[in-house]
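Give me the fold.
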Amino acid sequence: MDLKILRFINTIKYLKFEQIFFLVLKRIFNYQGRVGNLPWRFRSEFFKTQKELPIYYKDGKDYENGCIKFLNKKYNLYDIWLNYQDYTKLEQFNSHYFNFLDNEFDQEQVSKTLDCLNIWLENRITYANDCVGHSYVRSIRVVNLIKFCLRNAICDLRIVECIQEDLTFIKKNKERDLQGNHLLENLKALYIGSIFFETHLQNSKVKNEFENFLMEASQQFLIDGAHEELSPMYHSILLAGLIEVRHFRKNYDKNTNSTEDLLKLDSIIHRAAIWLANMSHGDGFISFFNDSTLGISPSLTEIRNLLEKEEIETLKLLPAKTVFFKYSGFFIGYASDFKIIADYGEIGCHHQPGHAHADTFSFELSHSKQRIFVNSGVSNYEVCDLRNFQRSTQAHNTLTVGEVSSTDVYGSFRVGRRANILNLHTSKETINNFISASHDGFGNFRKKLLHNRKILWNKFGCDIEDELIGWKGENISIRYYLHPNLKIIKMSINKYSVKNGEEILLDLSIYDATSRVEQSKYFSGFATESNSNCLVISPNLNKSKVQLSWKN
């Protein structure tokens, strides 16, 4: 069978029927939804009962006279809006999110921000392109506009009409073909918008929009608390969104007659917050699994502050103990101020893997607030060699066969063949904890190859054992990427020390292999890269062992 056809089959066979149905409507029949005016009626009394709105993003602190910093670069909004063809799709998306509105402004700043919005409103047709009118972009923009109006008691009819137009479009064009975080943002915007406006059937309308959001959130957030796409970055963004919806439900929704719905939402928030806390390092920021990088999502500290403002005590007494999240597949171990996070799960999620990486069995390690071994990170979403590398197995702390990835990631957001997890075993004993599993990502119908990785974890150190079962001379390499702040010093053959300044954090010994240190890159944010080092291990035959000994 032609490889392109096989890749296409492996890409679409996991889609839900609903996704395929709406993909056909949009891609083949160019269906955009019939956008007519829905009977939205503005609630003028809304501003008389306004309560304090927490800040969920921090983009606004850098906003000044149409210039804003996002994706770690300074942009002129007017230039992006007018000359959008000169910018990437992600840059265009961000310029129309209006995240800079989510901030506390003084009166002068409000006036300047309104001037900026007026220019955008007057030239919306000129700026029109796929990014401006995208349902996901509209969803984020609508919520930011509503919060801006509420915080500053603004009743500008042009802004209200823009919100109404966007909500009408979202209502008719929910992203059921993509699903995942996009659909959840759509439903969040519709719920908050239904409170901002009212209709003759407002009571049932608001209730239905909240129930739609709650039902989708219940499906997308797994039993162990993880969002189904298994990206700590998007998980953090969506968790902030859950808390935001709870705030509106509790303080603005006139139809809140029972606590049952709030209890259901609180249960999702509780599990999601615990998962995020475990998936973050001691520095308070997320680990780099799948599409995750710094500077995009709220930090753990910001999430804690939001929970505190909403009087949710989820994270106050969270114990630091070894845990395995069964449904998302992440193993987290704690010992002597060291923390390991290892991915032993299936790709997330099968029907929407756009943000997935080929990172099966990869891990990250930190000591207190210092990261030690890190996955390479993400710096762009464009279709390019760098994007392909950052999603590949070679960019992660795990084993690679030749240059083949354990999962076939391609085309920026596409996934074909996927690695399957086999023979998973975990144990939590008094002294030692271990996890072991195999995956078949390097095999095919002609040859069977299984990568087995076992991690043994205790208060003295960590053993990581890799074996390629079915090996017949294939080239094997295992990579350990170091954080740029650290140095790796070769003490003797296959023995190294990892140092933070003059302090030795750990000693590292390698068995049944040769090793070398190579220069590498670390991508801690969009449009950001740092020089770093990578320890490359080449097993003598088909297996090797790395022993990490804590120094403290």
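The first helix runs from residue 3 to 12.
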